[in-house]
User: What shape does this take?
Amino acid sequence: MKDYLAFLRRSFALSFVGDWRYYAWMTLLTVIALIGLNAWAVQMAQGLGTTGMTNQVSWGAYIANFTYFVGIAAAAVMLVIPAYLYKTEPLKKVVIFGELLAVAVIVVCLAFVTVDLGRPDRFWHMIPLIGKFNWPISMLSWDVVALSGYLLLNMHIAGYLIYKQYLDEAPNPKFYKPFVFISIVWAISIHTVTAFLYVGLGGRSFWHSAIVAPRFLASAFAAGPSLIILTFQVIRHFTRMKVEDEALFLLRRIVVVAMVINLFLLMSELFAEFYPHTFHVASAEYLWFGLHGADKLVPWIWIAVTLNVIATAIFLSARSHRLVWLNAACVLAIVGIWVEKGMGLIVPGFVPTPLGEVVEYGPTFNESLVCLGILALGALLYTIMIRVAIPVVLGGLRREA
Amino acid sequence: MSSHDGLFNGALAVGAGLAGYLVLALVMSSAAEPKNVRAPAEEPVNLDFGPNERRQDEVLLHKAGFAYECIECHAWQTRNPAPRRFIGEHLLMNLEHGAVNTCFTCHHPTEYSSLTLPSGEIIPYNDHVRLCAGCHGPIYKDWRNGAHGRREGYWDRSAGPVSRTDCIICHDPHQPAFKPIAPLPPPGVARGEAFAPPEEPSTVLGQVLKYVPPPPPPDRAPVRLEETEP
Amino acid sequence: MSNDLVQIGRRSFLKRASVAVAGVTGVMASLSPLKEVVGDIDIEAWLQQHYHELSPEQMKDVLARLEADAKRTYGVDVKVQDIKPRPDTKFAYALNLGVCVGCRKCAYACEKENNVSRSPGMQYIRVLEMDKGGVNLETANHQYDPETVPKPDKYYMPVQCHQCDNPSCVKACPVNATWKEPDGIVVVDYNWCIGCRYCEAACPYWARRFNFEKPILPKEEINTNTAYLSNRPRPQGVMEKCTFCLHRTREGRYPACLEVCPTGARVFGNLYDPKSEIRYVLENKRVFVLKEEVGTVPNFFYFFEA
Assistant: This one.
């Protein structure tokens, strides 16, 4: 216990140590996070009227980003499966950074949900026993369970392994292996449950489709590993941690398959919407072509799909075996899926409203600042975590004798 | 491929991603300025009864500060059973009441201050519901059972009374169709932009109702009411 | 970092202290917009239990506190009561689309009766202008504003909470802040709602409204006869909805929207009473419910009759 507290204390102290680039990066993130916090404070004081949301479009950028990042968090499983199940060596060495990324991203997700609440001060109402937690009826309560469970699992696995290395002891498989396998199933479940949040709303035909959960997973397993590919390169550039190219190209294989499946599912969805052309096509029509003159999302979705198609083409071609092309494709996939699955999924669910009213939504400046602040918070957390993890993994940080 | 290249690309990619997000966020936010269609404080809206409010007491003609009963004129005027246009003091009236096209379908031919049932029975004006019910049986039944007409008060009769409006409160007996009224202002939207549905109706009937027929041939003069035979 | 193995102890106390001060200052400065609402914080209100957990004594205190809050905020003596459902009662509504002229008086009477924020789009009742010849909500006009209504090629369809028997909004709520009362009314505990708006997304009738900002209530128009579960003044950041005016209907009176309707298009009553007006309509008219296919089983019926 004393050792553990010492570990925490030294980790905390270590997070303030680095070269000028580290300080610049951390200061930048802290400033953005504080600006975001300030914007959130404005929102809490004046209400969600500071956002672009209305009774017509009652969820916006917050929930869109939430949905996207749940996928990113779930995608850590694409490192875990090859590393633990198939014992792929290059990935096994770096899997810990994927799990830490999941931790940071889940915090981002929880932050996006929290800022979306009208009464964050009543958060305790959700705590079982003290409050009233409508589980298992409400899908939102399932999502809370899934996300916090996934957060705990990854915190435990990554924390345990790092701490054991710090102690210079061999980790006991009994204390982490079962949780690794649970986390694999759990990762799938967080994104499935998040999809079910929307699928479970029978009155919103745009979301009420069985294909939403598979689409979520496919897009997550494309965007998530793409982000991990980029992150690993940043890590190996700025730290002494070595990440082999082989690890990156192993992830590439996952992204290729996921991108192709994602595009296929998108096409299936489009066919189901537009060929029969029932009343329920209105939301899809709004997204892809505009409805009653409302067409704010139309350029975004076409850009997103174009990016996704180009990214898939690059991933499928031999060029993606070169890092430049691979990185370009990853950026395209990340941005493309961010638009398609964020705003492109959430906003059309509200346009038109169930009573046919067409009101457009766009985030306000304050709302965007909150989003940026949360992303900065996530980056800050992740930087601190790898700042501590890398010396431990490399053997630089050990229990003091 | 050296790892040095990879790191550069990686950093570039992350930078591009962040910059892209900023641009997206700023572009989208600029288009979302609050636009209140409905001003917060507005003059109080009129929730009063509406234009079809009519007096419920006996029928009087108000002229030059005096009130006259029907019989004051009709005592010396002769009865004309033919369908006709209103003249004199009734000029402001129009008879557009379905098949009812004579005064004496409802008004008693001699007891001018009273109404008459088809049976010939004389009833006072304030008992007009019986007269209306003679022709409008199903609606009378709905009204009796609370499915037609405006009500106020208590749905639970043990807790309090209910006031039910009579036929002529809402329906002018000479022109019973409900008059168009001005709607209260539209609800507006708090933020963002509202878009109206297309002008073109989406239904077949809607299309048909929009259809404007060509004008009738010029030689067909409109039928004049006073020239028709009884 | 090139200096991963740097010794931690090297950092001076001064440097650490300045970082700490800068950090705390930064966080405090960021949170400064909250200063204006700090005065509103009421620890008793914050700790208030769920409606179902409150004992009669606690409820008395809560009601007194709410009345004091209203007095402080609006300077008006508002009476807040906790009106319980009546036994053997299930409320239902019917609306005669054949006579509705679309004048919106119901929407405005409701707004006033229920102390609904005068912010645009908050009214519980939305009147749709529909093309004759179908029931196509996708082309309904919400913002119609002609000189007079009805327009000859249109009909009008007011929509409000349908008080469903299988309410998707109640299922959605993660904290049980909204539930169905024994008399069929779906209510919201405004002191329990966390403002996630999942219920608003779940409702197929777009019947729920969220207080995106502090409600705009003209002091002189406040209805002072209120109930905990219906029309008492609401705080910012919570959901609200039509309750069939339960503060009126549970005392035997008609809802406000019914009384104001100039054409008498609205019928309300107790489904369990065979002699009620609503039973007459359901038994003698051919009624339909909106979006029957979503399976929410509404207690709000439409019919067409001259």
Notes: The radius of gyration of chain C is 25 Å. Chain C is about 25% helix and 15% strand. The CA atoms of residues 135 and 290 of chain C lie 9 Å apart.
